[in-house]
Structure formats: C-alpha cells, structure tokens
Amino acid sequence: MLSFRILVALFLLALPGLAAAKSLALIIGNDTYDNVPSLQKARADASGYQDVLQGLGFDVTMRTDLNGRDMGFELATFLDRIAPGDTVAFVFSGHGWSDGRENFLVPTDIRVGGSETLIARESFALRNGVNGIIDEIAKRGAGLTLAIVDACRDNPFATDQGTRSVGLARGLAPIDAPTGTFVAFSAGAGQTALDRLSDDDPAPYSVFTRHFLTELAKPQDLQSAFKRTQRLVNEEAGRIGHPQRPAYYDEVIGAACLSGLCDGATIVAQPKPAPDRNAAAARDWEAFRNSNSIDALRLFQQQYTDTAYAALANERIAQLQVPEAKPQPTTTTPVTRQQARPGWCPNARTRTERAICANDTLSALDIALEAAFKAKRATLNGAARDALLTQQRAWLRDRDSCGDSVSCMQTTYALRLDQLRN
C-alpha cells in the first residue's frame, strides 16, 4: 500500500497554489557550425552564464554545439519542466538572423543554400506570437522570464561574393516581449554584435557577455545591470569604430532581479492573481465531502484551514470517528458507508477503470479532475476548446497505460489536475 507520506505529497501536488516556484535556466552556446562561419566565444559565454546563474540559485541546463534535432529536444525538455510562477532564464549565444520582423536562432547544422522559407524552417523562432521560444515559456505561466540573446552577429548566410541572402536583415529586429519578460539583446536593431574586439583579444567572452556577466552577479535589478552593460559595451566597441549598443525589451512590472536582493531590498517575481480560497475550497470539497478516509479529510482541512469548509471537514472526521454501534442479533446488517464514486463506475470495463472505482483516493481524484476539466472547458471556445479535448484524450491514454498501478495513476491525476487548474 502507498505510504501515507507519499499520499500526502500527491494530494499537495494536486491542490492548487502549493508547489514552490523554481528558478530554471537553459543555456545554449553554439560555436562550431557545419556550413556557416564558426564562432570563438559562444561556448565560453554559455559556461560563464552557467556559473553566474548557478550562483544565483538556478537549476541550470547548459548545452553546446547543438544541431537542429538536439536543440529541439533540449528546448522541449526544458519547457516541460516550467510550472506557473517559476523564474525562467533562457540564454543563447551563437548565430541568429532576422527577416526584419521575426528573429531566429541557428542550430549548428543549418544549411546555407535554399530560400528564406527553408532557412526559417530549420531555425528556431525566438518570438512569433504562436510557438516561438519566448511564446512557449509565456504559455506556461512563468512569473519572471529573462531571455539573453547574444546572436546579433552579422548575417551568417552571406554568399561567397559578400552579398546577403534575399530578405535577410542585418542584426536582429526589435521584439515585443510578453508581460513579465525581460529580453536582452547584445546589439540594437540593425546592429551586429562583436564576438571579439580583435583576433588576439584575450578575453574569454564576447564583448557583450564579458560585461553583462559581471553586472548580473551584483545585487542590483536587471534594468540597472543592463543599462551599465549597455554603456560599457557601447564605449568599448566604439573605440574600434564599431557601433554596438545592446538593447533590452522590458515588460516586467517594477524592478526585478535574479538574486532575490536588489540593493538590499527583496524583489518579487511578477505576481500572480491571488486565488479565491473559498471558491477553490468549495470546488474541492465536492470530491471529499463523502470520503471515508480520515487522512484525506485532514489533508483537505489543513489546506483550507482559513475557510468555512475546514469546519465541514472536521465534522466529517468526527462522524467517521464515532464507533459503529454493535448490531443486535435481531437487526439487519448495518449499511456500510460508501465513498463517492465517479458516475461512470457502473460501466467500468478496463482494469484501469476498475482500479479507480475500487480505490477511495483515485475516485476522489477522478471526481475532482472531471470538475476541473468542465470548469476549464467552460472558459474556452473554438480552437482552444478543441485543443483541450485533444489534450484530455491524450491524458486518458497516459492514465490507462498505468494499468492497475495505484501510485502511477495518483501521479498522473495529480499532474493533470495541476495543468487544468493553472
């Protein structure tokens, strides 16, 4: 039987608002390209950001020289880890390009020949309003997002004659950042970023990164760190006659910093709306009100101790703790209390369905999930509603793959509840 501690953890995961926010970072540094000019500092840049962000408490994933397939895999794996309220950092150092409207990051196996359409399909959109990297992070409800892009080097698709591919712009284009997002570019619109000041430049990092790393590590907000970096890079690049003025796009409300302390003051990531505690308690009480599990009821009472529903949970616990009266020889057998079951249980056919209907905890989770799904569906229409139905069918297949494993199904239900409620 599943231990009570594990059961507690599963219930806490299923209930909204309890999971602690994380600080996650994905860092990619691409130096060695197959078909376009290689760089010298991108891998070192990635290593430098890894050291700084780990020092600031981030759980860092750092990868270098990724081809298209591997880059797609690492991005998908990282996105799957993001939960609402997390602080997220995405760092890319390598080649990038723009069509003048959207910006793209380049994997190491990008092909030189072909149309702009083909190059775009083999690159990774930074933000396009649909499925760009920053769009996907925003969909997952990150509390604060920092995107650092040192990919404003000159167009890597120039021909041997020095001309540019048709439609490709110099540097990167300005970006419309989502709410709660701070985007840092190593150069301004139409400018290119220096990988190094000269061929014998001894600094291990690019011109932008060498200054931004120093500022990020200081107890100051992101805006202050970037403005100082902007000034230093502009001055240093200007000394060799190269215009480079780093640009940032800030949609963070107020100041924000990654260390948690900015000039001695605590800075909180983008706040999320406070949940309606009574509404949440009322919704979840429907799944617990007829429960025969005192442990489950106590979990509910602890979660909603500041609402009137805590008293209802205590009352139900008291009812369950009253000893059953011993039946007299002449009386009929007392009716056994029956935990509420999903409405489809009389028609349960698979071993997964039978296991759910035979287990109090799984039954309560299924009832809660059905209510959460209906509530979510009621807020959607059109394509979004269809997408939700498709996701739910996929989730049912995942659940059924558990067979009759109670622990597997508890985890599956808990994760889906968290997705639907957030």
Quick gist of this model?
Residues 21-96 form the Caspase family p20 domain. The chain is α/β, with parallel strands linked by helices and 422 residues long. 42% of the residues lie in helices and 11% in strands.
Question: In words, what does this structure look like?
Answer:
It is built from 14 helices and eleven strands. The chain is an alpha/beta fold. Strands 2-1-3-7-8-9 form a six-stranded mixed beta sheet, sandwiched between helices. The longest helix has 19 residues, at 360-378. Residues 1-8, 14-18, 159-167 and 264-274 have low confidence and may be disordered. It folds into two domains: 4-16 and 275-322 and 342-421, no CATH class; 23-266, Rossmann fold (3-Layer(aba) Sandwich), CATH 3.40.50.
Q: Work out the radius of gyration.
A: 27 Å
Shape: elongated
Give the C-level CATH assignment of the largest domain: Alpha Beta
Taken together, the total number of domains comes to 2
- Return residue spans where pLDDT drops below 50 for at least 5 consecutive residues: 1-8, 14-18, 159-167, 264-274
Q: Alpha-carbon distance between the termini?
A: 30 Å
H-E string: HEHEHEEEHEHEEHHEEEHHHHHHH
- Helix fraction? 40-55%
CATH topology of the largest domain: Rossmann fold
Topology, number of strands:
11
* Chain-averaged pLDDT: 81
- Spatially, the strands of the biggest sheet line up as 2-1-3-7-8-9
CATH architecture of the largest domain: 3-Layer(aba) Sandwich
- Major sheet size, sense and barrel closure: 6 strands, mixed
Structural class assignment: alpha/beta
Q: Work out the oligomeric state of the chains in this entry.
A: single chain
Strand content: 5-15%
- Per DSSP, the total helix count is 14
